[in-house]
Structures are given as C-alpha cells and as structure tokens.
Amino acid sequence: GEDVEQSLFLSVREGDSSVINCTYTDSSSTYLYWYKQEPGAGLQLLTYIFSNMDMKQDQRLTVLLNKKDKHLSLRIADTQTGDSAIYFCAVVAFFSGGYNKLIFGAGTRLAVHP
Amino acid sequence: NAGVTQTPKFQVLKTGQSMTLQCAQDMNHNSMYWYRQDPGMGLRLIYYSASEGTTDKGEVPNGYNVSRLNKREFSLRLESAAPSQTSVYFCASRPGTGDYGYTFGSGTRLTVV
Predict the structure, then answer these.
(1) Which of helix, strand or coil describes residue B84?
(2) Residue A99 has pLDDT above 90, yes or no
(3) pLDDT digits (tens, 9 = 90+) for A46-61
(4) Residues in B touching A44 (Cβ below 8 Å)
(5) Does the pLDDT value for residue B87 go beyond 90?
C-alpha cells in the first residue's frame, strides 16, 4: 500500500527558511498536499501541487515536486513563530470503484526559536 | 461558518463504555471520513463514506462502527471502549469529485481509562 514518510522534527531560527521533506511510494497520486496543524486544532489545508507541476509558489510557501524520486518538499521563507506547528504531507491513494482517500505522513513538528 | 463540526470536543470513558462521536458538514460534500491521530503515526483512516448510503472500512476499523445518517452527518460509534482507543479523532469531508483537499473538523480528544 501507499506509504508516506517525513522526518519528525525540525528546529529553525526566526527569519530563516524552513524546508520540510516528504517521500511517498505511489506515483499515481494526482494531487499532493501539505496540511498544517496548530496545537489543539484540526488540520488546515496549507497548499497543494498537481502532479504535472514541478513547483508551486504561494507567498512565503514554495512546494517542490520531484516525481522521479517521489519526493515532495515545503519551503517556508522568513519563518515566523506563528509557523510553529505540525506539518503533514498527504497523497491520494486510489481504490476500485473510483474511490480515493488521503494517506498522511506522520507529521513534522516545526519549532521556531528566536 | 461553513465547515465540519464535531461533538464532543473532549470525552473520558471507562473501559467497556460505549459512545458515539458526531460529525456534521454543511458544504454539501459527498464523501466523509473518520481518522484517528496518534503521536508519531500521523492520521489513520478508520472508516469512510464515499457517498450517502455507503460506508467502507479503512486501515483501522476494528472496535468501531459508523453510520451515514444523511448527506450531512457521519457518526462514529465505539461499542465497548478500550484504552487502545485513546486518541484524537478527526472527521473530514470532501466534495467527492476531483482531487481536492479534505476539510477537517477540530477533533474529539477521547481518553479511555
């Protein structure tokens, strides 16, 4: 089955860039997602990239996709303390009948320090 | 505000007790999902409902049942709670067509003692 892997922790200094990495096993996913979870809250869709794209930029966020290596990354420029959260990578797994579901990585906890 | 609403937000159960977690969405989404979140394990799918009237097992369905009451509501029932079911439970929905991100509820934190 589909497997999604992420490193569990990342610590950065305020103002620096953060890069969160993700690898996945199934290359059939048409969309790949990044979700953000703040303490005590649900998951919020942060951004996504379509599988025929290599890069997507959205303000301080840059998503890079390397389909050959099945590698997805999220770069946050000028990281702020408000960016401290858990970031989840998610890909779509397909099933017979046309149904699909999201498969999540374990999440990367980003800690931003002064 | 439009979105996914889960109740309750917190619950403590004794081993063997039963309870139902409620979820409702007002976005006219077809598909709804129940996930559990455990430290270091990400989110694991318990059950899903691709459309009204259908439900299917996910990765970790044992000990749970679901009901898709109507298009808006999808409930998760624990018939006989066990300490291993201590977790944070999230309900999610999506339109059902195309590959669009899910909308999540704020979660139910369940402790079984």
Answers:
(1) helix
(2) no
(3) 999 988 899 999 999 9
(4) 104
(5) yes
Residue A1: pLDDT band by 50, 70, 90 thresholds?
low
- Cβ-contact B51, B96 below 8 angstroms: yes
Residues of A in contact with B41 (CB under 8 A): 106
Q: Do B68 and B54 contact (CB within 8 A), yes or no?
A: yes
Helix (H, G, I), strand (E, B) or coil at B98: coil
Residue among A41, A99, A104 whose CB faces B43 most closely: A104
Average pLDDT for B56-78: 95
Look at B104 and A92 and tell me if their CB atoms are within 8 Å.
no
Tell me if B43 and A42 make a contact (CB, 8 A cut-off).
no
Distance CA B57, CA B112 (A): 23
Q: Does A104 touch chain B (CB under 8 A)?
A: yes
Nearest to A104 by CA among B38, B84, B24, B53: B38
- Asked whether the beta carbons of residue B101 and residue A31 sit closer than 8 angstroms, the reply is yes
Is the pLDDT at A98 greater than 70? The verdict is no
